[in-house]
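Anyone? Bumping this.
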Amino acid sequence: MGELRVIGRQGDTRVAWNPENIKEVAAAKKVFNEYLSRGFTAFATTGSGGKGKQITEFDPGAKEILFVPPMAGG
Amino acid sequence: MPPADFYGDDTSGSITTANGSITSASFTPYTISTSAADDGGAQWNSGWVWTGTGGLCQLIIPSPEELARWEAEKKAEKIARTAAQEKAEALLREVLGEERFREYKSTSAIRVDSPGKPGRQYVVDAHNRIKVYEQGKLVDTLCLHLVESSLLGVWHDSQWLPPADVVLAKVWLLENAEGRVLAVANH
C-alpha cells in the first residue's frame, strides 16, 4: 500500500492506494497532480528522521509521499 | 440607552466599525469596551462607539440566540484546532522520529543541521523567523511562510496550519530543499 499525506488546515489529509489496483492508483495520481498544480511540493519519504526525495511525478510504487504547502518569503 | 436585549448579558463579541472592519469587544450591561490592542479602547455612546483612536463605530448588539451561536462556533473551532494540532504532532513524530518529537515538545522548536554547509544549524519554531547559527553564533534569520491561496486571498501558515505542521514542513524543506528555502526566504 502507498500513502499520500498532505499537510493542511485540519492536520494531514491521507490518500491511500494499492499499487495493484488501477482505479486506486489513478485516483491517487489525480490527487497528486492537483496538489502539484496548487504549488505544493511532493517528497517521497525514505524512512524516519526527516529524509526524503523531491518528486514531480506520481510514483505508484512509493510507500509514502508527503506534500508540503507552497512557500513564500515573509 | 442600550437596547433591551443587551441588558443583563456579560459577554464578549465583536463590533463593526464605520469602515466595515470588525474588532473584538467586551460587553457589560451598560458599557462596551474594546482592547487597547484592537482599537485603543472604546466607550458606550447611545448606539455608537467613539474609539480611543477617534473612529466612530456602529454597535451591532448580539441577540441571545446570536450569542449562543457564537459560543457554539467558538467551542467547535477550539475543538477542531486541538484535533488538528494532535494530528499534526502525530505526523511530526512519525516523520521526524521520537527524538526530534521530544525536542519539539520540550522546546517548541527543532534544530536542523544544514545539509549543505557544515557547522551551520537552523532553529525552527512555528511562530518566529528561522534562526541561522554558524559555529554556534547567530548569523542570520529567515522569514519563510507556508501559504495557501484562495479566492479570498493568501493565508500565511500561522493563520491556517497547526503549529506542529508548520515546524514539520519547514524542517522538511530545510533538510530536503535547503537551496530553495534560502532563495525564497527573506533574510
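Late reply, but here is one note on the structure posted above: Chain B touches chain A at residues 80, 83-88, 90-91, 94-97, 100, 112, 129, 143-149, 154, 156-157, 160-162, 165, 168-169, 171-173, 175-177, 180-181, 184-186 (CB under 8 Å).
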